[in-house]
Amino acid sequence: MDNPDVELDLQRSVQAVLRELNAQTPALQSNQGMWRWSLHKKVERDPGKRPVLVRILLRELEKAEREDARHVIMPLLHTLMYVFTKATGITEELHRRTYAFCMRSLTLPAPYCTVALDCAIRLKTEAAVPGTLYQRLVIAEQNLTSELYPYQERVFLFVDPELVSPSVCSALLLEIQAAQEQQTPEACMRHVVSHALQAALGEACHAGTLQRKLQASPRLVLERYFHAVVAAVEQMASEPSPSREGHLERLEEIYCSLLGPAAAARGRCGGKRLLLPSGDPLQDQLPSIPLPSPHITFHLWTDEDQLWKELVLFLRPRSQLRLSADLEALDLQGVPPDRESARTSVLSTDSGIERDLPSGADELPSTGSPEMERAGLQRKGGIKKRVWPPDILMPSSWDGPPGLHRRTGRPSGDGELLPGVSRLHTARVLVLGDDRMLGRLARAYYAIRKRETQKFCLTPRLSLQLYYIPVLAPEPAASRHLELGELATFLGRADPWYENTINTLCPAIHKLAEMPLSLNTSRTIDPFILDVITYYIRMGTQPIYFQIYTVKIFFSDLSQDPAEDIFLTELKVKIQDSKIPRDGFSPRRRGVAEGPGAELSICYQKALLSHRVREVTVSLRATGLVLKTLAASDNDVSGPTYCPPAAAPVTDHRCLNVSVTEVVKTSNLAGRSFSTVTNSFRTASIQIQSQDQRLLTLSLDKDGRRTFRDVVRFEVAPCLEPCSGAQKSKVLISHRQEMERTKAKAKPLLMPINTFSGIIQ
């Protein structure tokens, strides 16, 4: 399509997206992100515009490369790859230019080179076998059965009903249901077959006739053609040097078989245009082949172990059908074990004397007898021992960054962590809410990591991806609104495309909740919220890692055991009005003047650029203090850090930023007066104790449900991997030799949240 008006219209839309990125203070924040969505909708309604849009985006990318305008490279590259995934009929010249741009971008610093490498790998596959990206995405997201591509994905959308209003929950649920009611397995298989044939045959494919034929085909016939197309594409994609001619001939045979002998006789299935039964050439416009939204399950988060249970249920149906020998010991927790495989004690009546043996006991049964077969199959309650790889005992030493997630550039679930066990499942956990919801996610993530140290049944078979969309309740006070969205603000500063696409979604979600509910799902709709969620789930592959902190709390009641908890964003300390009884934990020292606040003893390790350990101990009177884990401004995005892993960028969101409201006493002729001043410092770990009779109240992650009262002392330190501390483990090297090793270096537990680009320095 070379229509100048079409190209001018698309060029204006692309420029509008770029203006949003360049604008420092957008005039209408609620309309941010709409230009990208409308741009994709234009080419979705008219697929013939996609090559034009690819040419425009590639031209803008090459211009940004010449002018060194790196802030627009990531948005343009993500938009371009999203078009490539859906498009058919993209010329080899556009594929070659885009691949060359990605290869040149490998010389740029991270994360540009990381994203460019991932795009180059996908482009090479798509150029060799057109339609591969679309086919694999639909098969995985819709859980279609395929032996050649067995990967499965699911999106778990979690909402806390106490933090998000019921109207927002109902609106999101209805939009998801309305979009997914039309996405039956039969419709998805028709889309895969149509897209693969249209991508391979090009103009020789009569798309309208093909879709009508597939629409009229019964389920069994449709499945047969679906598996034939998938086999043709996957077998060609797995070859080191695929042959386009052989692939084209195989798909032509499938195409001719679909249309029947009449169409095959009247038109040629070669590289020429087909003819209608009347003999007229095909002139109809290419029909749109939609890319179905991923399979999303909506969950109200009411149980602490709900995330774990949903992940187990996601794995259980498939694992019951395909249990290899290595998976027998990795049974799911919570599933009752088989009674027959339980180890039991048996009372032996054998005296050990040969004459006590019954007659005929010394005669061995024949080789083919049933007794011999049962003896070979029975096990007397022994313990199986298998040869494990040396790195399998430490989750932190697995391939890739810490956590249950994959590296960028690999297929979801690719790789084997155990012999014969592949990570075929990908769980994309998307949480909606504010910082309190992320605190809850951090606790669930830590609980999963802790469970995996005892019996790791998820990690070898599941790739866990975490996503976050801020949904802040409309607050009359703007300060409260900003306070609950600190992590979203940090993600927006780190990734401008996340700021433009995701952080601007909150007003649209509330606007959707205010609209009257419509139970009629048969009408055609353009679900804006669902489309943005889908775009984020598919293109957000770069994680930003956040340090989880652990806090140990000691109470004034000595009979009460210390409590341990974790937090992700903030720990706030307030001084209670009540005091410790006279015979309590620590009496008030003499000479301490009465005044506001409490006398605190603070011992902390100061964060230094050299990463040396320097302990500081101070005593002061304070009215409160706040421990934050996120940088306060853009100037703090690249400062000192605590033990950063080599795979992650160096940023200071792994330091504690402590703000203490100190009480300053002044004496003058009018008498004694008190004033307050705020002091701030950074630390890796800290211990705080009340020195007088005042008690403390701790609030974690701004959540009123996670409050601890009557506290006299607490300790905060980075949370470590549950099994990465100093411990001894016996690794079976062979059947006869064992080696004992000690893992002395502890590694911090980092929770990844996926964004589009990661942290852009």
How would you describe this structure to a colleague?
This is Phosphoinositide 3-kinase regulatory subunit 6 isoform X2. One of its GO terms (cellular component) is phosphatidylinositol 3-kinase complex, class IB. The protein contains 20 helices and 19 strands. 36% of the residues lie in helices and 21% in strands. The protein has 761 residues and is α+β, with helices and mostly antiparallel strands. About 18% of the residues have low confidence.
Approximately what portion of the residues adopt beta-strand conformation?
Answer: 15-25%
Number of helices: 20
The poorly predicted ranges are: 264-284, 318-347, 371-415, 584-588, 636-652, 724-744
Helix content: 25-40%
- Averaged pLDDT: 77
Number of strands: 19
Terminal CA distance: 39 Å
Query: If you compute it from the alpha carbons, what radius of gyration comes out, rounded to the nearest whole angstrom?
Result: 31 Å
Name the structural class: alpha+beta
What's the main sheet like? 9 strands, antiparallel
Principal-axes shape call:
elongated
Summarize the structure.
The chain has 20 helices and 19 strands. With 761 residues, it is α+β, with helices and mostly antiparallel strands.
Strand and helix map with partners:
Blueprint: H1 4-22, H2 34-45, H3 50-67, H4 73-86, H5 92-104, H6 112-128, H7 132-141, E1 152-159, H8 166-180, H9 185-201, H10 207-216, H11 219-238, H12 244-266, E2 296-300, H13 306-321, H14 370-377, E3 416-418, E4 421-422, E5 425-433, H15 435-454, E6 462-470, H16 478-483, H17 486-494, H18 496-501, H19 505-514, H20 528-539, E7 542-547, E8 549-555, E9 563-567, E10 570-579, E11 598-606, E12 615-628, E13 656-668, E14 671-690, E15 694-700, E16 707-718, E17 727-732, E18 738-743, E19 750-755
Parallel strand pairs: 1-2, 1-5, 5-6
Antiparallel strand pairs: 3-4, 7-19, 8-9, 8-16, 10-12, 10-15, 11-12, 11-14, 12-13, 13-14, 14-16, 15-16, 17-18
Helix pairs in contact: 1-2, 1-3, 3-4, 3-5, 4-6, 5-6, 7-9, 8-19, 9-10, 9-11, 9-12, 11-12
